[in-house]
Amino acid sequence: MKHNILTDICGFFRNSFFRLVNKEFLIFLFFLALSGAFWLLLALNDTYEKEIRFPIRIVNIPKNVVLTSEMDDTIRVVVRDKGYTLCTYLYGDVIKRIDLPFSSYVKKKGYGMVTTTELSKLVYQEIYSSSKIQSVKPDKIEYYYNYGMHKRMPVRLFGVIVPEASYYLAKVEFTPNVVDVYGSQKVLDSLQCIYTERLSIRNLKDTIVRDLELRSMKGLKCVPSKVRISIYPDVLTEESVEVPITALNMPEGKVLRTFPARVKVSFTVGASLFRTVTPDKFRVVVDYNELQADPSEKCTLKIASVPHGIRNARTEIQQVDYLLEEQ
Q: What is the pTM of this model?
C-alpha cells in the first residue's frame, strides 16, 4: 500500500515537471520565431543588389531565314532594390521571357545585334519601377543568319589518338561522316572540312565510341551539331611471306635471274588484317639501272609496294646473287 502511494506521488511530480518544461519551451519557441520574423522584416527592408536571369528568344524569324550562330538563351542582369522586391523576382512568377523581334535588330545583311541599351530597355519593361539595373551580361546579343546557303562537308577529328604499345589505330569512323554547314558564301568557300572538338586519347587498346560536338565558329551552323566517333584499335602481330623478286627497267632482249628467286618479307600488321595479306600484294624489285651505274657481284633488293595496313616491311636479306642473260 505504501509502495503504491509513493509511486503515485512520484508520477504526479514527474508529470508536473514535464508540463512545466514543455510550457516554457513552447514560450521560448514563440519568442524565437517572433524575433526571427522581426529580423527578417528589417533585413528585407534593406537595399541589395542581386543577379537575376532573364530568358530571351528571337521571334518572328522569316521562314526562309536560317540562324547560323548559337545565341545565349538567357541574360544576367544585376538589379538593385529592396530585399522583398528581389525575393519576388527570385521566388515569384514575375520574370517573363523577353522576346526579340528578328527584323527589329538587323544591322546589316546576315547580321543582327541587340545592344546593352536596348537590352536594358526591354528588362525595364519586365521589372518594378523601383528597381534599378546595375549591369547586363552579356553586354550585347549577336546573331548571324542567311537564306539557306549551305555546303556539305566531311567531318575530321581534331586531336591526338595514341595506341598502347603493340597496338595500332585500325580505323576511325564518324556517324554521320558529312554534315551540312550553313554560313556566308565567303566563309563556306574557305572551308574544306569541319573539325570536331578536341579529343585526346593515349594508351588506347579498347574500342571507344563517343559523341563529339563539332567545333563552333562565328557565323557558322552545323546540322547536325554533333557526331558519333568510333575508334577501333587492333593488336599488332609479326608475320612474314615469301615474295618473288622482279626486275625493273630491263632492256629488251635481257633477262635478270636472282639466286634465290624469292625472298622472305617480314612485317607487322593488325591481327584482323593478316588474313587479307597475300604475297602477290607485295613487290620486291631489283633495278637494272642501278646495276649498270654501280656494277657488283650482288644486287640490292628494294620493297616497291606493300598492302594497306602493313608496317615495318623488310626483306630477310638485302642483297642476292644475280645473273644477266641474253634472250
A: 0.65
